[in-house]
Design brief:
By secondary structure, the protein is mostly helical. The chain folds into two domains: 72 residues, no CATH class; 202 residues, MetI-like (MetI-like fold), CATH 1.10.3720. Helix content is 72%, strand content 3%. The chain has 15 helices and two strands. A two-stranded antiparallel sheet has the order 1-2. Strand 1 and strand 2 form a beta hairpin.
């Protein structure tokens, strides 16, 4: 009996290990590639045994990469800064617009309210190419082309529907009796919204904010069409690595690792609220 129990635990451990390695191996391999040269990456038989080098990271930090055609300037660190500005600005604007809207949809039922909410949600699933050409024309005529403001505003098509629908569910789970009891003490509607509703929905707000940040960080089409190299994020800036003479896989892998650090750091910072927000832990009415 003891032998059977021990064997079962060992088999479960091996099964879990294989499943985890199956999903994590691509991430591990990209991390290892960032310390390899192109010759080591492209050899016929891949190997975990190699001489690690920091040349890929040094090249990205310095902004100069070596190609068969010569030394080429890249601005990947500026691209990362652009991504951070665009994603952070998008999330801040989404929070300002989305939290009051989510509360209104959760608390007040009015004619056409659900239709409006579904229309906003449909923006998230609309093809970007459907609106990118008109937006490009409008922004060019208005003088907003190639500006952070324009991209942050357009990113609301991605982030606002996500936050609105996630946070709306949390506000619906917050008991209205708590707010009414708070107002009976003489507090205003806004104060009850700020002091009661938002703190109770904080896990959902944190989780949706991180999701919005990731979606904005990973956007490619809007940034490619509506901005030049001055404001382009990492998703577009990485294209500069690919040249007609060669594809530097090690540099691309190092760029991927660097681009993951901000989102990973943010996830670790708000980990407490993120776990609560993804676990249906809101107050029930």
């Amino acid at each position: 009996m003891n032998f059977s129990s021990a064997l079962t635990k060992i088999l479960k451990f091996l099964a879990y290990f294989l499943i985890i390695m199956f999903f994590l191996f691509p991430i591990l391999w990209i991390f290892l590639m960032s310390f390899m040269t192109n010759d080591e990456i492209l050899r016929k038989v891949p190997s975990f045994i190699f001489s690690p080098t920091l040349d890929n990271y040094i090249a990205l930090l310095k902004g100069k990469i070596s190609t068969p055609a010569g030394v080429m300037d890249v601005f990947y660190m500026k691209n990362i800064l652009n991504s951070f500005i665009l994603s952070s600005g998008s999330v801040i604007l989404t929070l300002v617009l989305g939290i009051p809207a989510a509360y209104a949809f959760a608390r007040y039922k009015f004619k056409g309210g659900e239709d409006i909410a579904f229309t906003i949600l449909s923006f998230k699933f609309a093809p970007a190419l459907l609106i990118i050409i008109p937006l490009n024309m409008y922004f060019t005529k208005m003088g907003l082309y190639d500006s952070y403001f324009a991209l942050i505003w357009v990113y609301q098509l991605i982030t606002l529907p996500l936050l609105l629908w996630i946070v709306r569910g949390y506000f619906e789970d917050v008991s209205e009796d708590i707010e009414h009891a708070y107002r009976l003490d003489g507090h205003s509607w806004f104060k009850s919204f700020w002091q009661i509703s938002i703190p109770l929905a904080r896990p959902g707000i944190a989780a949706s904010s991180l999701i919005c940040f990731i979606f904005a960080w990973n956007n490619f089409v809007f940034a490619l069409i509506l901005g030049s190299s001055n404001i382009q994020p990492v998703t577009v800036g990485a294209l500069s690595f690919i040249t007609a003479s060669a594809i530097p896989y090690g540099l691309i892998a190092a760029g991927i690792v660097l681009s993951v650090i901000p989102t990973l750091t943010l996830a670790l910072i708000i980990q407490k609220y993120l776990v609560e927000g993804l676990s249906l832990g809101a107050v029930k009415g």
